[in-house]
Amino acid sequence: MARTGNNLERIKYQNKESIKEIIYKQGPISRAEIAEMLQLTPPTITTNVADLIQQGMVYECENTPAQEGRHTLGRRRVLIDFIPDAKYAIGIECGYHGMLICLVDIRCNVVIERKYEDRIEYYEETMDAVARHVKELLEEEGIPREKIAGMGIAFPGFVDQDGGILRYGAINKWKDKPVAQDLKSRTGFVCVTENNVRCCAIGEEMRADRLRPETFAYFLVSRGLGCPMVIRNRLHVGEMTGAGEVGHMVVVPKGPVCPTCGNRGCLEGISSEQAIRERCRQVVREKVPTLLNAVCADPSDPQIDEILQAQNSRDHVVCTIMEDAITYLGIGLANIINFISPPLVIMDGRILQNAQNQKLLIDVTRKNLFSKNVEEVNIEFVPFNKFRAARGAAALVIKKFVLEERRQA
Ligand SMILES: [Zn+2]
Question: Has this prediction a pTM greater than 0.70?
Answer without folding.
Answer: yes
